[in-house]
User: What shape does this take?
Amino acid sequence: MNEITLKATIENIPQATAFIDEALEAAACSMKAQMQIDVAMDELFGNIARYAYAPGEGEATVRFHFQEETRTASITLIDSGIPFNPLSVAEPDTTSAAQDRPIGGLGIFLVRKTMDDMAYEYRDGKNILTIRKKI
Amino acid sequence: MKITKEKNGNALLVALEGRLDTMTAPELEAELKQELNGVESLELDFSRLDYISSAGLRVLLSAHKIMSGKGGMKVTHVNEIVQEVFDVTGFADILDIE
Assistant: This one.
């Protein structure tokens, strides 16, 4: 198990992403999957930084696990902020005209579409969100 | 992210290099805000852009709205990762992608 705990701030997204990139490179991840996972990190760590502790601040833990047999990377993000289940967010309407399009909700939708799996649980006062992808 | 601008009359070409994400999207937003006055057509060259997240999509959407009342905006040289983001979010139907 490989993990890092950082202050949940927008400024720390690059550090959280760099931690995951290093682990992905060690696992010989394809460039495409790595870019998709980097986008997911931007969305998910960014959400925690913006909303989990607002208006206060707190920490986020990012955990990486690689299952060799199936070549599946699992990334878990943990925070102790307000309970938020991203799986409960309605899918945005991606067919409406540009002018009427609401701006929220796209990030999580994008992650759900590009990752193989997304799981959420709220346990011991913590949001625990795991994404999985075959790399 | 590196932003390179080239103005030709009232046409503006903006080339992006690196990642258009939460950290860098505000830079592009600020550049466009400053530059779009008087610009009639806008091209965003993505040939050296690695990827885009939803924060970048927001900036593209607001630029698209501004430019749709003028000569328009097009996005060129999009890689596979960026195209996938455009496809799954429906942005491929909104934007003029070449």
